[in-house]
Amino acid sequence: MGPKCFLAAFATLSVILGCLLTSAEAIQCHQCDSNNHLHCSEQWDYLSSHEPQSCDYLYEAAYCIKATGMYEGRIGTFRFCSSRDRGNYCDYVQRPGDEREYRACIHTCRTDGCNSSPGLRSWTFVCLPLVLLSLAVSWQLRRA
Fold this sequence. Notes:
alpha+beta; CD59; 5-stranded antiparallel β-sheet; Snake_toxin-like_sf; membrane
């Protein structure tokens, strides 16, 4: 393998590794309880200044959860971070001693701020052209 081929192979490998090794940042979720914060109601107040907060305090946090109705024994809307996918479903819950049945819903998402911000940035649009360019240059150098 000549020096040109070695350099081309090294450059291609560097680009591929650079694309695969991205920095990991914790997901950011809205974290609130409608019992304590009015802006946290089921119908989100997009005009509020409440920003998503980092979930880096939670080990392997990868999901934002919005729970409405009856959740953990309380009625309201709750937004929080989770390391588990809790799914997307609604159910009717009746606690012992209650005359009422409550509709409870869980919504799980994997993007910063759940429904109020753009999704996680994908590096595919940056890395794919770089990898293809590196492969093309490598191929041209091998032919030379």
